[in-house]
């Protein structure tokens, strides 16, 4: 635990006007349960999950729900709101308004383009009619191969409105990587674009689109984003069951074909209303911008802004173009109230010497959301000092698995540097040791002990459910084990230490890689780092640290000693690596996660061709460098 004082504390006005406070009053009126603060509200929500989710349904006025909320409370297998029908798009339609745009499309080197609510719904209605004319209906799959543009949102909403299932990849994926995902689904329609601009360069994707079409023999039609300009009449929706598939997202796919993770309409609507309105305090007067791509679950999460009537921002350009502070410039220009980015972007801004609060008018900015990896205390404090003391830092952690977060910020709870403020409502989060005993103040496995409606309804092509069970329920039967190391602090916040399947275990002491990265990557000479721990045949343990140097830096003896000192002083002497090795880069999944486990397997003797699927890696050539080093 950091031991630091909070860097941000909600004011009395923050607490009084927060949507979660209003919800607590609704809970008291509806159920008679009077809660005194966020912690007691959370405790009720996990002690009485059926009552919590039913009350949430009523609070957001989602319509008739029936008396039965939870058919059983086992995992996997929980059945939520049996017999209820709805459609995700209904919640979007009810927010139509004329005083604010639904979407603002930001393009590199071009004017911002506003899409009104009427235009959004009209263009969605026209494409929905197009889908119906092609015979697309309930259960059919529509695939997207698109940048983060309004047409991607329109295509998704039209697909969902007719009861079909949406699945997408960003155009940073090659045709083969996209086929590894979309090819599993036998889609009937492909929605795509000719290319996109990034960092001042145009990327023509016509060849990849043609390869994708050839690899998808079930397609009835390919539709270009540039064709989605017509507007139709009233947008109508097909009512579907609570668990009817809404979309299919994918695991990273680093160890084989990516798993298709299927989420239902009802679970996503409930989870996203909770996460966006109650946890993030986003509403009708907000502009919500998360820098993301259709390949990443945060794209799906950002669309949830439409569920509460907020304006969302689509941007497929570079976060560093024309300058390292490009996202802050967009946030200032659009008067963004909630901005989402990554720890890597924050660190890059810090190293570039950016001071956003001086260079941009960020008075409208209320919250900076962070996800993708752990945010170091130093970066959190940098945001306070260089973006604004008034800005809440809402670091979140969850995953594609639930297309949301388990832990994050809430408007009524303080922010401690390097810590996630609280578990989300309805998320029965705990930290367990290997024997399944809860632990506090020390590292444990992140587990969820009760079901949530947004847990996957199933994996695609997993008829017997074996892949689903093995992904989450093998270690602790009946309990979701997520695969992260966490510490729950004495004030109820959570520290995330990294993936438990890449745990460093030196002399029987478990350590998280994130703690090492936080200390090393702050050094100006280090662009990025990767640490692994390998058991040796003689019973020894080898823990190398690979460092990618910043431009102009050299790995001198002095730098090696400063790296070791930083780790020794800021983490512990046990975390100091056995060796520091200069590397040309760190390989990542397409969503930016470091490939710790595959590299560890490679150094343990695994075949480089079998440890990872190259199309799932951002720079596959780096794998060859590590393989050559192993040899």
From TrEMBL:
Enzyme class at the top of the EC tree: ligase
NCBIfam families cross-referenced by the UniProt entry: ac_ac_CoA_syn, PRK03584.1
Residue ranges the record marks as coiled coil: none
The AMP-dependent synthetase/ligase domain, residue ranges: 97-452
Protein name, entry field: Acetoacetate--CoA ligase
Highest taxon of the lineage: Bacteria
EC numbers for this chain: 6.2.1.16
Family: Belongs to the ATP-dependent AMP-binding enzyme family.
PANTHER family, A to Z: ACETOACETYL-COA SYNTHETASE
UniProt cross-references to Pfam families, sorted A to Z: ACAS_N (PF16177), AMP-binding (PF00501), AMP-binding_C (PF13193)
Domain (AMP-binding enzyme C-terminal) ranges: 521-593
Acetyl-coenzyme A synthetase N-terminal domain span: 38-89
Alphabetized InterPro entries for the sequence: Acac_CoA_synth, ACAS_N, AMP-bd_C, AMP-bd_C_sf, AMP-binding_CS, AMP-dep_synth/lig_dom, ANL_N_sf
Annotated source species: Mycolicibacterium gadium
Keywords tagged on the record: ATP-binding, Ligase, Nucleotide-binding
Gene Ontology terms, MF aspect: acetoacetate-CoA ligase activity
């Amino acid at each position: 635990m950091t031991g630091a004082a909070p860097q941000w504390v909600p004011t009395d006005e923050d607490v009084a006007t927060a949507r979660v406070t209003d919800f607590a009053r609704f809970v008291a009126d509806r159920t008679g349960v009077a809660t005194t603060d966020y912690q007691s509200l959370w405790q009720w929500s996990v002690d009485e999950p059926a009552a919590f989710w039913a009350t949430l349904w009523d609070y957001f006025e989602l319509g008739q729900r029936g008396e039965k909320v939870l058919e059983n409370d086992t995992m996997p297998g929980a059945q939520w709101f049996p017999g209820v029908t709805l459609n995700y798009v209904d919640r979007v339609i009810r927010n139509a308004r004329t005083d604010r745009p639904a979407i603002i499309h930001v393009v590199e080197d071009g004017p911002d383009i506003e899409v009104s609510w009427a235009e959004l719904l009209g263009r969605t209605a026209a494409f929905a009619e197009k889908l119906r004319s092609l015979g697309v209906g309930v259960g059919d799959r529509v695939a997207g191969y698109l940048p983060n543009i309004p047409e991607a949102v329109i295509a998704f909403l039209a697909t969902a409105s007719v009861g079909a299932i949406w699945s997408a990849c960003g155009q940073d994926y090659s045709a083969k990587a996209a086929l590894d995902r979309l090819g599993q689904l036998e889609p009937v329609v492909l929605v795509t674009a000719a290319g996109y601009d990034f960092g001042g360069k145009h990327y023509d994707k016509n060849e990849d689109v043609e390869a994708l079409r050839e690899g998808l023999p079930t397609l009835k039609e390919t539709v270009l984003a540039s064709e989605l300009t017509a507007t139709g009449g009233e947008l109508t929706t097909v009512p579907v069951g609570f668990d009817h598939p809404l979309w299919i997202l994918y695991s990273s796919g680093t160890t084989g074909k990516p798993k298709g993770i299927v989420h239902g309409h009802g679970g996503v609507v409930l989870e996203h209303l909770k996460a966006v309105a109650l946890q993030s305090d986003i509403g009708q007067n907000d502009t919500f911008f998360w820098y993301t791509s259709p390949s990443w679950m945060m794209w799906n999460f950002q669309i949830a802004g439409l569920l509460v009537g907020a304006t969302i921002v689509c941007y497929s350009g570079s976060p560093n173009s024309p300058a390292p502070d490009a996202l802050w410039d967009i946030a200032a220009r659009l008067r963004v109230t909630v901005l989402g980015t990554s720890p890597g972007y924050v660190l890059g801004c810090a190293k570039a010497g950016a001071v956003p609060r001086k260079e941009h008018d960020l008075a409208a900015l209320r919250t900076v959301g962070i996800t993708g990896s752990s945010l170091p205390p130093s970066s959190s404090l940098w945001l306070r000092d260089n973006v604004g003391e008034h800005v809440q830092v809402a670091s979140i952690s969850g995953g594609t698995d639930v297309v949301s977060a388990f832990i994050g910020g809430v408007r009524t709870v303080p922010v401690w540097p390097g810590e996630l403020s609280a578990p989300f409502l309805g998320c029965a989060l705990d930290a367990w040791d290997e024997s399944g005993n809860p632990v506090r103040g020390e590292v444990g496995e992140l587990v969820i002990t009760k079901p949530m409606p947004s847990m996957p309804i199933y994996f695609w092509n997993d008829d017997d459910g074996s892949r689903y069970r093995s992904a989450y329920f093998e270690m602790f039967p009946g309990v979701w084990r997520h695969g992260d190391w966490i510490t729950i602090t004495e004030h109820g916040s959570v520290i995330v230490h990294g993936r438990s399947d890449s745990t460093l275990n030196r002399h029987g002491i478990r350590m998280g890689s994130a703690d090492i990265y936080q200390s090393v990557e702050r050094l100006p000479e280090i662009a990025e780092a990767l640490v692994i721990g390998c058991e040796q045949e003689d019973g020894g343990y080898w823990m190398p640290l690979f460092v990618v140097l910043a431009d102009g830096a050299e790995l001198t003896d002095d730098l090696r000693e400063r790296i070791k000192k930083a780790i020794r002083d800021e983490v512990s002497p046990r975390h100091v690596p056995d060796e520091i090795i200069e590397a040309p880069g760190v390989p990542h999944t397409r969503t930016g996660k470091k490939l710790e486990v595959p590299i560890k397997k490679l150094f343990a003797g695994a075949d480089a061709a079998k440890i990872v699927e190259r199309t799932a890696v951002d720079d596959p050539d780096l794998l060859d460098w590590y393989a050559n080093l192993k040899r």
